[in-house]
Amino acid sequence: MRSSNEVTPSNTDEEYVWGFDQIQIDHRNPMAFTRLIYLERIMTMINTVTSLLPVGSRVGDVGCAQGNLALLLGESGYRVDAYDLNSGFLEYSKKKWTKGDVSWINENAFEIDERGCYDCVVLGEILEHVAHPDELLKEALSLLTPGGYIIATTPNGRYFRNPLPSYKEVIARGDAERLEAEQFGPGGEHHLFAYTIEEIRKHIPVGCELVSVGYLGSGLYNSHVQKILNSKVLGPLYKSLAARVVRVPLLDVRIGSTVMVVLKRQL
Questions:
Q1: Which are the contacts of 188, defined by CB distance < 8 A and separation ≥ 6?
Q2: Residues 153, 45: contact at Cβ < 8 Å?
C-alpha cells in the first residue's frame, strides 16, 4: 500500500480522506497519539480477520473510507470488496493500491446485492453514522456465508470522555427523523450517537451470536500527554501502560474510546 505522501488528491473528497491518512498513518511523528490509536484499531481488526479466516477468504469492507483495511487485507491474500457511498474516497483508495485482490464498489451499505457471499463483513466506524444501526447489522448478516463473521467497531458510549448521547437516548428524545436526515456523514462531526455494548447486544440479529467484545483506543492517549509520548525514554513506557490499561476488566469499558464486537452467523 502506498503512503499518502506518494498520492496527490484530485478533489475535495480525496483531500478529505488524504488528511486523515496524514495524521493517522503517515504522521511525521510516529508516536503521535492520533496515529497510535488508529493503528491499534486497524491492526486489531486485521489480526482478528487473520485469526478467524484462512487466506483466500472473501471479505466485504463496508464504509471503507480511505480503504486502508481493505488494501492491507488484500495484500495479505484475502479477496476484498471495498464499499463506500462516496466515489471520491474509493478513487483515493485506488491510488494507494500496489497489489492484492481488491475491488472498489460505490454503493449504499443498505443496498449491497451480494447475499450470502462473504466469509466476513467489516463495519469499521460506520454504525454511528446510520439512523438504524440494528438494520445495518441485519444487512451485514445477510451478506455472510453460514459461519461467517461480522467485525464491527464504533465509538464506545460508556467511554468516560464520550461527549455524545447513546443511541437509546437519541431515540428516547424523538430524534429518529433527524437521524435519518443526517445519516451517512463521513467525518467525526457527523457521528450521530455513541453505541453502548448493552445497545449492541440488543441489536444482534436473529441467527447471529456474539463471539467477543473488546475495547480499543486507550483514554490515556490525548494531546496532553503528547510530550511524554515524544520522550525517547518515557514514550515507549507510557505507550505500553496505555495499551495495558484498556485491557483491564471493568476498567476497559470506561477507558476504551472504541468498542469492537465480533458476531458469527449461525450454521
A1: none
A2: yes
- Kindly list the strands in the beta sheet with 144-155, ordered across the sheet, starting from the edge strand earlier in the chain: 102-106, 79-84, 58-62, 118-124, 144-155, 256-265, 208-218
User: What is the tens place of the pLDDT at every residue in 87-140?
Assistant: 999 999 999 999 999 999 999 999 999 999 999 999 999 999 999 999 999 999
Domain ranges of the chain: 4-265
The letter for the amino acid at 102 is: V
Q: Tell me the fold of 4-265.
A: Rossmann fold (3.40.50)
Strand, helix or coil for residue 71: helix
Q: What does the alpha-carbon distance between residue 196 and residue 199 come to, in Å, rounded to a whole number?
A: 5
| Closest C-alpha among 211, 201, 191 to residue 257 | 191
Please give the Cα distance from 23 to 3 (Å, whole number).
12
List, in sequence order, every residue forming a beta bridge with 60; answer none if it has no partner: 81, 121
Give pLDDT, residue 177: 85
User: Could you say which DSSP state residue 199 is in?
Assistant: H
